[in-house]
Predict the structure.
Amino acid sequence: MTVEKKNETVLNNSSKKAKGNDKRRLLAVLEIMKRTDEEHPLTKNQILDKVVEQGIEVNNLKTIAADLAALKELDYDIVTDYSGSYMVGGQLFENYELKILADNIANARYLTAQHSQELIERIKKLASESGEELIAATTVMDPKLKSSDGKMKYKLDTLFRCIQKKRKVQFSYRKPGAGRAVIYTVNPYALTIYEDEYYLTTAFDSGKGYSDIPFNFKVQRMTKVEETELPVRNISEIKILADGLGFADIQSYRRLMKNMWSGAKAQSVILKVQPYLADSQLVLTADRVKENENEEGILTVFTKVIINTGFYQTLARYGDGVEIIRPEEARQGYAEYLKNMLRVYEKEN
């Protein structure tokens, strides 16, 4: 190889190396700037130092200035404060929004403590420096309240995919106190979080027993969750899950059922509610609410529910703040439910 050829090869290699370094440096500057905000702006010198700490060559401050200008041209909101320091003006998420996500993950009982911590660490990476400090300093997680089921994330992933692709799902399920698990193949329609636990709303195939009644399965109790190739049953066949026009109306169904107890028939109920429960879920989800003309502050609540043990359990939470006015069968059923509770404490030890 001639001297000229050798020199040409060296120049080409140097040029490629320089271009590669430029790309690495620009990406590094971008990641550094994503961590800035009004409370944590950076000078060009500070940006240069942080880039060099990553083992990336920087010629001088003009190089950093050129990188910042390039990011601006790419529509990144790089702004300068009164002191000449640089920061990102518009973050994808506000710090308080990321904090809300972190709190929900920390308190999600369906996630293990390890998985929760991993997710919170990822959320921190989306935050500015002050946002990361906020999340680290104020997020509390009690490991005793977390799930011990390390497969929960895989179960949820399978269930979400089955709902999205409208495929039946198969799983083993052990009810509380049951001797052994039962294998179910069901039509999945929705996943609902209730009291920090995931529940799967399903229906069996038509022609089978209870085919018109939706069932809610607690995901925590499922094992061996598998997607099938079978298409789901059309939701319009299950009247209480549809809007009457053949479309899913899961949200309305969630309002009808109480304490995750299923049923096929909704009934109109009138309740007498004390004023201190005006912002309770029972009142907020009602069809209609009006103030009682004869009793100041007392609310008359008109709503539709599935009348069963789940409904009675929900009312019991509000103590003497709620009274069933109509229908009479619901009033009598609730009275019997309360009597049965009282009998537990009237037994002689």
